[in-house]
Amino acid sequence: MKPTVLLAAALLAGAVTQAQASDHGHHSHHGHAHGEMTESRHEVRGIYLGYDAEAHRISVAHEEIPQVMAAMRMNLHLAEEVSAPELAEGEPMGFTMVGKAQNGMRWYAESFEALPADTELELPERLREMIGH
Fold this sequence. Notes:
The protein has 133 residues and is of the alpha+beta class. It is built from two helices and six strands. The protein has helices at 3-21, 125-131, and strands at 27-31, 37-52, 57-62, 72-77, 92-101, 105-114. Strands 1, 2, 3, 4, 5 and 6 form a six-stranded antiparallel beta sheet that branches. The chain is globular, with a radius of gyration of 16 Å. The N and C termini lie far apart (36 Å). Keywords: Signal. Residues 1-21 form the signal peptide.
């Protein structure tokens, strides 16, 4: 492997360890008796980018989740019982992002809330350019 890939993997492993160790009021972790993280919940704000009915997932550009991940565009799964949000593409939203350990981490979205149109989201300029919002 290239040194850059190894460095990125090491940094990611450190971020996951840090995320597992922290437990602030805006997110929580649930695990087994041995301390394994099986679920991680985060209150997040972002821009709704659409719904893929075939895959039952949404696309969002979200703000940074401190000590977990940078602001980015993501496709988030919806649990079977969760309906797609009734939002227009480009609309600001609040939601709960849930990470579940299932052969690696799999991310879900739930509890959608439309935010006022004038909501100031903290998204990097490069991300705004990429998504066109």
